[in-house]
Design a protein that fits this description.
- It holds the Pfam family ABC_tran.
- Keywords: ATP-binding, Cell membrane, Membrane, Nucleotide-binding, Repeat, Transmembrane, Transmembrane helix, Transport.
- It is a single chain.
- The chain is of the alpha/beta class.
- It is built from 31 helices and 23 strands.
- The chain is globular.
Length: about 850
């Protein structure tokens, strides 16, 4: 990064920006100048380079060439946090909020340091900020429990709270309803009056005409047009975007059905969470639209037809009643449902176009249960025929496609299997003008083939142009059914916002969100400690010696080892990795210190320092292998583990290095019956808990493991965070090695290998997510004590070694299943809450 003084007076300048990806030149010498106090629309089809350009301005994308002028300085590259501190805030098309964080923690990461309140007042500050913006969102809710709409609103609120000089809005209204869009535009007007520069990216041309002052149009990574919005008509803007004349956007509508024609789809008195007694029909050749202010039940109705949440009523296809009591039953009856959240709900982002297209039609793709690649390719080409998916081949991961091409792959999936009903949620969300024409034609062709097509959209213009009939919802009931000439933008919007419906359908109730309790770690720790105490009491009934001072002292001292190795594993697991070198580092640490334990305590301290340095070095190697060479953590740490164990065995081919008796006595000291080593281990756990839960680096640690792409956009330096976590893990494992030596008084290279598995066990029992993003150091400490109690109790109960393994394994399995079951229950409740909210 080079920062130089600049005389640029504009709020943001991007000069000569070039960015190349393998096989694709995303941006080619692009220059854009954004003036303060104006709204500058950046337009283009999907894949034109818009998001790459603003990503470079925000620091989440590194340019190959060009200069970024921001805050009176010039940069050849900029970090996300640096851009934020310089006054730039960005609202991404896909909200950059790490799923495992609470809303308040996510917002704190998005704010500049100068605007961030103290940790103690953060929740109340954010609640006041939401209230001032008229947003009803719980600051302590977990981000993953929010709907896409709520996540967008949270990110917009965070951007407004940062008091930016430049605000980038990337497709901000795609998940918002008309009222929320009007609210956002009011916020934009207020910012413009204060001199804030706004970069506005959208595919909705009416929004550009309504709110923007200037525009720049990108096509194939180059600027093909710029100027003031007032100098262009809507048709001229569209022609600039797609590079050709757009003679018609919407295909011709279907003629009116003949009297007595049997509807292709008939919904009768359908009732469910957030809606009741909903009835409408779709005749062959027709497209039916569902409309209404967001949260009035229309979204829940669409999913009810698809088999999710309906509790009463009927659905008929071709005059025959079908079952919609489950998604599977509805699918087997011929209903194809295409959710609006493409990557989050509908498709598998890391899987190929081929695999995603044939996913719901596996019986066609592999009729005998075996993969038939030729058959899969044929079906995929049949599905995407006429949809112009922009891809070099069919093995490209869906996540690598533009939004328009992703939507086309999803539509191709809906075509396969000869569906009788096609339900499409937000069919053109995040889709450019050219792709919209192709999608509209596809939906009309599907309807003409006899398929009942039902479309849910928040765009009244889209509903007017595409649909033969529009059903408008209010408070969970059908407010109006418009057909023929009645289907126009004014009538649709008017029916939605001027409703006098007062019936009491439970749609206004805010769904209860899963909250991040500030005492979650303590609660989990208390439960585990309670189990340890209960098990100790049971063991004392069988053998009174179990609770003797000597036995308890040995149990607690041994627990210190398990606590430290569990903490070592935890810091890596939170980042989404795993460390298989923990046991080897423990062994190496014990071996190193064994060469310094025959002298006084000062000499031992020197050995302990060298052991900790060795642990840090191993962690550094692990971190570099993962972050610089991009090796999977399992492979990287397994290789390191083998190498470290080999070094330990070279240093101590046989157990040796007996400690001086006086030194062992010193290391084994206890205060009030509590071994010093346990007190140290618990103190480390408390300190680590505080860092993870109560500090900025801790938020970054959790964000990096929750979603590294979003974390990077939030300003977290993900590779550095993972590197520091690996080094910390090495140091903690080395500390465990010192405790092992203090208890045995001998250096043994083969004495600690089982601790790697034990460390993973402690993390699992403590309820940490093995996929990263969450975990409590206090719960891990309690898990270490519990595991050692189980081991000690089983030996006192005279249980054979083989049975000890069986019992411990069953216990771990139970401990792993419980949090998974709780998570499933929470997800079901969250899904039901979203249904209630429409």
């Amino acid at each position: 990064m080079n920062a130089l003084p600049t005389t640029v007076t504009s709020a943001l300048t991007l000069t000569g920006i070039t960015k190349t990806y393998p096989g694709v030149k995303a941006l080619d010498d692009v220059t854009v100048d954004v003036a303060a106090g104006r709204v500058h629309a950046v337009l283009g089809e999907n894949g034109a380079g818009k998001s790459t350009l603003v990503g470079i301005a925000a620091g989440s994308v590194v340019p190959d060439a060009g200069i970024i002028g921001l805050g009176g300085r010039s940069y050849d590259r900029i970090q996300p946090r640096e851009a934020r501190e310089a006054g730039l805030a960005i609202v991404y098309q896909t909200p950059a909020l790490a799923p495992s964080l609470s809303v308040v923690d996510a917002v704190m990461l998005l704010l500049p340091d100068s605007k961030r309140p103290s940790r103690r007042t953060a929740s109340s500050w954010l609640a006041d900020h939401f209230a001032a913006l008229q947003l009803q969102i719980d600051p302590n809710a977990v981000v993953s429990s929010l709907s896409l709409r709520e996540a967008h609103l949270v990110e917009i609120a965070a951007a407004l709270a940062s008091d930016p000089s430049v605000l980038v809005l990337d497709e901000p209204t795609e998940a918002l309803g008309p009222e929320e869009t009007a609210w956002l535009f009011d916020q934009v007007h207020a910012l413009v009056e204060r001199g804030v520069a706004i970069i506005y990216i959208t595919h909705r041309i009416p929004e550009v005409i309504e709110i923007a002052s200037d525009l720049s149009v990108l096509r194939d990574g180059r600027v093909v047009g710029r100027g003031q919005v007032a100098d262009f008509t809507a048709d001229q803007i569209v022609e600039l975007i797609i590079g050709r004349s757009l003679e018609t956007t919407f295909p011709d509508k279907a003629p009116l059905p003949k009297a007595g024609t049997v509807p292709a789809l008939e919904v009768l008195e359908l009732t469910g969470p957030g809606y009741e007694r909903v009835s409408f029909a779709a005749h062959p050749g027709q497209i039916i639209g569902l409309a209404g202010v967001e949260g009035n039940g229309q979204r829940a109705v669409l999913r009810g037809i698809a088999g999710s949440g309906a509790t009463g009523g009927k659905v008929l296809i071709g005059g025959e009643e079908i079952s919609v009591r489950s998604l599977r039953a509805a699918s087997n009856s011929g209903i194809a449902f295409l959710p609006g959240d493409r990557l989050g709900e509908a498709m598998f982002g890391k899987m190929s176009i081929r695999e995603n297209t044939v996913a719901p039609a596996l019986s066609l793709a592999m009729p005998f249960g075996f993969v038939n690649r030729r058959r899969e390719y044929a079906l995929t080409r049949e599905g995407i025929a006429g949809l112009a998916v922009k891809t070099p081949h069919l093995e490209v991961p869906v996540s690598a496609l533009s939004g328009g091409s992703q939507q086309k792959v999803l539509l191709a999936r809906g075509r396969l299997g000869n569906p009788r009903v096609l339900l499409v949620e937000d069919p053109t969300q995040g889709v450019d003008a050219g792709a919209r024409v192709e999608i509209y034609a596809f939906l009309r062709d599907m309807a003409a083939s006899g398929v009942a097509v039902v479309v849910l959209s928040t765009d009244a213009v889209e509903l007017e142009g595409l649909c033969d009939r529009v059903v408008v919802f209010s408070r969970g009931r059908v407010q109006a059914s418009l057909s023929g000439d009645e289907v126009d933008e004014r009538a649709i919007t008017g029916a939605a916002v001027l409703s006098h419906e007062t019936a009491n359908v439970d749609v206004a109730k805010v769904a209860r969100r899963r909250r991040r309790s500030p005492l979650a770690g303590e609660g989990q720790a208390a439960i585990l400690l309670g189990l340890a105490v209960a098990l100790s009491i049971v063991a004392s009934f069988v053998s009174s010696a179990f609770l003797s001072p000597l036995s308890i002292s040995q149990l607690l001292a041994a627990s210190a080892v398990l606590i430290l190795v569990g903490l070592a594993q935890l810091v890596v697991v939170i980042t989404g990795g795993i460390d298989l070198s923990v046991g080897s580092v423990v062994a190496l640490s014990a071996v190193i210190v064994s060469f310094f334990a025959q002298q006084d305590i000062g000499f031992f301290a020197l050995g302990a320092l060298l052991a900790l340095l060795a642990g840090a070095l191993v962690g550094l190697v692990n971190g570099l292998l993962v972050t610089r060479l991009s090796l999977p953590p399992v492979i990287a740490t397994l290789v390191t583990s083998i190498a470290v164990l080999g070094i330990a065995q070279v240093l101590r081919p046989f157990p040796g290095g007996s400690a001086d008796g006086g030194l062992l006595t010193t290391l084994g000291l206890a205060v009030a019956g509590i071994p010093i080593v346990l007190a140290i281990a618990v103190a480390v756990a408390v300190a680590l808990w505080f860092v993870i839960q109560r500090t900025g680096p801790g938020r970054g640690l959790r964000a990096a493991g929750s979603d590294p792409v979003k974390a990077n956009r939030m300003g977290v330096r993900v590779p550095a965070t993972r590197l520091y976590a690996a080094i910390t893990a090495g140091v903690l494992a080395a500390m465990a090695g010192l405790v092992v030596y203090s208890r045995s008084g001998i250096g043994d290279a083969n004495a600690a290998q089982a601790l790697t598995l034990t460390s993973v066990t402690a993390v699992v029992i403590a309820g940490a997510s093995i996929f990263g993003g969450s975990g409590s150091a206090l719960a891990v400490a309690a898990a270490g004590i519990l595991l050692q109690t189980v081991t000690s109790a089983l030996s006192f109960l005279s249980v054979g070694l083989s049975w000890q393994y069986w019992i411990q394994g069953a216990f771990v399995l139970f401990a792993a299943i419980v949090p998974i079951t709780i998570a499933l229950i929470r997800n079901d409740r969250a899904r039901l809450g979203r249904l209630r909210a429409g």
